[in-house]
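Pasting as-is:
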Amino acid sequence: MAEFAKRPEVTVTTMGRVHNPTGEGVRAISSQVQAKVLKHATAPGHENTNNDHETKVKEGTAKRNITRKKTADKDSGNYNSAHKKQGGHGKGQWKAEMDPINADDLPIDEDDPIYDPAEDSDKYILTSIDTDADKRGYDQTTAKAVYGPMLTMQEFKFQLLECLKEYFDSCDTDEVIRTLEELRCQEFHSEIPKKAISLALDKGPRERELISRLLTCLHPTPLSMDEMEAGFVALLDSLDDLTTDVPDAHTMVASFLARAVVDEVLSPAFLSEQNNERPGDTVIEKAVNLLSREHCNARLERVWGPGDGRPVAELKVGMDQLLQEYLMSRELDEAARCVKELECRHFHHELIKRGTKAAMEVDGVKAPDDPSALSNLDAMAALFAFLVRNAIVSEYQVKKGVARVHQILDDITLDVPMAPKLLASFEAMLAEQDNGKSYPVPEDEATPAVLDIKDDGEQHA
């Protein structure tokens, strides 16, 4: 048997016997250590229920640190096996080699069959794969794509103003929609109702009617309900400034609100919400009152009066109503206001003709000795002279209207036999009202080639 096999097993009791295999004469623990342990155990305040020596690992020692590294992640449940060396101290792994960061940029060869010029150019833009990306266009100056509105707010307002002025001349709503789409400023669409109505407040009934029709055509595209409501809210907020330039702005804005509800541009709930947010607001109350009247839809469709660009046949009906009301009330100011609302300066000769004919038909049935035999003709002459003095109707339109009465005098004589004498008396009254100025029949109007106003509103020779 080998020599080392005869050696006894090294235990706690045989520790220190490296140079004395037999262990004879050597104590496992020296007398000095035993005396020190005994002294510590018999010290006052120290109680040791276990006589066996317990080996404790001190905090901060190398052994304690090793234990933490091995067991901390396992105990907390955050153990990650990716950090294991897996033998060979990490040799044979492809982590660093497969990392794209460490890949070298290979030069692009233009002769390569799969060569892409776009990849070799610096003029490209990284965008998301979202198909709804808000890319509005490409700016040639900066060579970059444009995201968001193509114009600033001031530029958009200027372009909108020019577009509305052109619309007042052409009345083409499709052109307005096409222009707004070309501007590509969806964020500023809430400014359209405010700008359009503010511009129409300074104009006549025709322009206001055109704006009401335009708002109807713009909804729901390109203006949504939210954008339309936001525009009217901005209009109500700026109403104090508008009143400075247009004293009657409150009434007209209320009419725009009521008309928008009838045209289904705004919901009725919008007025309710604004009434709660603006208690006591006169504009909202007027709009609600307009919508509360009987036959409100039919009335609000004609809210801007006879001068809103309606057909000539309806314009003639408005003239007849105006003249009949004047003959009963004899109020010059009210009649003059109604004539202004007609907004048809080119058609005032029709007003003169119809007024003269209506007065002749009323006075023609009276007896010659009646004191009021010519009262209606006198009142009509006073009205025409008042309109001329206030520059509402031109003298040319009065002459042209009297000339047209001469042309239909034969037809009037069938119903009113005294028509020629009544017409002569009426011309004398006109001259007297205008300080002796006569109204002779124009040479170009005395012939049958007088301008004929057709029902389509156009003038034909």
